[in-house]
Amino acid sequence: MLLKDVPSAQNIEDAEERIHSYIHRTPVFTSTQINDLLGLKVFFKAENLQKVGAFKMRGASNAVLSLTKDQLKKGVATHSSGNHAQALALAAKMRKIPAYIVMPQNAPEVKVAAVQQYGAEVIFCDPTLEAREKTLKEVVDQTGATFVHPYDNYDVIAGQATVAREMIEDTDHLDGIFAPIGGGGLMAGTLLSAKYFGKNVPVYGAEPLGADDAFRSWKAGKIIPMEYPNTIADGLRTSVGQKNFPIIQKYISDIITVTDDEIIEAMRMIFQYLKLVVEPSGAVPFAALIKMKSKLKGKKAGVILTGGNVDLSKLPF
């Protein structure tokens, strides 16, 4: 696979300018207690405080705002039961265009309600990838809407890249940035921003041991699709994308896998010391940093807290 049409530094700067009124510029937090416990200084980029509670609002907004006039008239479509569904629905509402979201019948009611509240039309399907893709194709064929992929889309990648760009702007030189890998949109964007704006600061990927397809793909030099993922980090159960993998291959420093117990402990520390609500997927990069703390002793690390959409009645601690 070759790197082709990868977002440039200008593309990311343009995305930042394009989406700034659609998103929050999220704060960066530190904790003296965490710094003392780990023996290094940690900067947490709080995308759990982003609109819709996750970084996904950035990529969805950039994709919607990059559409042509003809595309805007027909709206956007996707299949998702998670944060991308809500992000695309809200971005479409803010742009005053139709949104069609294919969701599995077993999607959490709270997520379905949120998508509908943003004005999107929800189309239900059987809870399989085949059914989701088939139903989406039917919707696109009927409506002419533009499919906005949750992560395998260069406009989405450029939007997600603004997370790391902001963190680099808001901190002194970092010695490492930690971000999770699911489909790889955020990771690809983080790697590009680190290269263009962060003086090639090392970027470390973090993955649950029960959904480690990116780690195995990276080691093998080819995409190995995720089958039967088993992790508390539900946002990271998907396979890495075709457009994202070459960027990860070329630029990533390392990929660290963590157990669900390590994810839960990282979550607990974020709740306890930062007083922030973070979902399991959002705690994965901090769990990876804890695992690597001896290698970064006395240095400065950035951690992207990707989302905060957690059911508080089902906390794992």
TrEMBL record:
InterPro entries, sorted: TrpB-like_PALP, TrpB-like_PALP_sf
Sequence ranges assigned to domain Tryptophan synthase beta chain-like PALP in this UniProt record: 22-307
Keyword line: Lyase, Pyridoxal phosphate
One function term, GO molecular function aspect: magnesium ion binding
Cofactor(s) this protein cannot do without: pyridoxal 5'-phosphate
Gene3D superfamilies given in the database record: 3.40.50.1100
BP-aspect Gene Ontology terms: D-serine biosynthetic process
Similarity remark: Belongs to the serine/threonine dehydratase family.
The name this protein goes by in its record: Pyridoxal-phosphate dependent enzyme
